[in-house]
Amino acid sequence: MQEQFVATCHARGSHPVNSGKQGVRKVEVRIKWDPSPWDRPPHHLDIIAATYSVDAPYGKPVYVVHYDSRSPDGTINMSRHSQTGQGFGYVEAMTLEFDRLASSFARVVVGVVIHQNSGHKTFGDLSNAGVLVVEGHEELLKDDFAQVSASTATTVAEFTRNASATWDFREMVRGSDSDPVVFTAEMGSTP
């Protein structure tokens, strides 16, 4: 499938954000969407995180975390998962513990993908969809996917280790028309 990236930078997303001298330490990425009508196949979205090494920060991911996996060291894992969107508020969540991530990692990219098992679906086909990235009580990102409405997947956030060995957050909403397998390979590429 041919890649189609829609690069979008928000004013806040053009500069890294960190939480003071300690940087970003423990973050939760949450998504929500309304269930499909009763007579239609369910909408199934997933949060995906890809980790990149110091040696190849834009190369192949060291590992990818999604709904049926977790990082080998337990620093990135799904704390909540939904295959239908049913529930109140944000129905799927992934926790990323940057303060415990090995020094061999330089970058983590997080995205959201729509499964295409029951026909082509884009973010524009969903209602009440959104992503929220928080650290404790601080909201780092809140987005409704409107800017990537024609896409089937999107990156949402990039976390990078800086020169002082702390982690910075950068909003990175960038749509793609790839299926989940291809998206996991391309999501960390340069825009």
Can you describe this structure?
There is one protein chain. The chain is mostly beta strands and 191 residues long. Helix content is 4%, strand content 38%. It contains 1 helix and 11 strands; from the N terminus they run E-E-E-E-E-E-E-E-E-E-E-H. The protein has one helix at 180-186; strands at 6-7, 26-32, 45-53, 63-65, 76-80, 92-97, 105-114, 130-135, 138-143, 153-161, 167-176. The strands form 2 sheets. Strands 1-11-10-7-3-4 form a 6-stranded antiparallel β-sheet, covered by helices on one side. It has a 5-stranded antiparallel β-sheet with strand order 5-6-2-8-9, with no helix packed on it. A hairpin with a 2-residue loop joins strand 8 (130-135) and strand 9 (138-143). Mean pLDDT is 84; it is low at 1-15.
Summarize the structure.
This protein has 191 residues and is mainly beta. It has 1 helix and 11 strands. The longest helix is centred in the last third of the chain and has 7 residues.
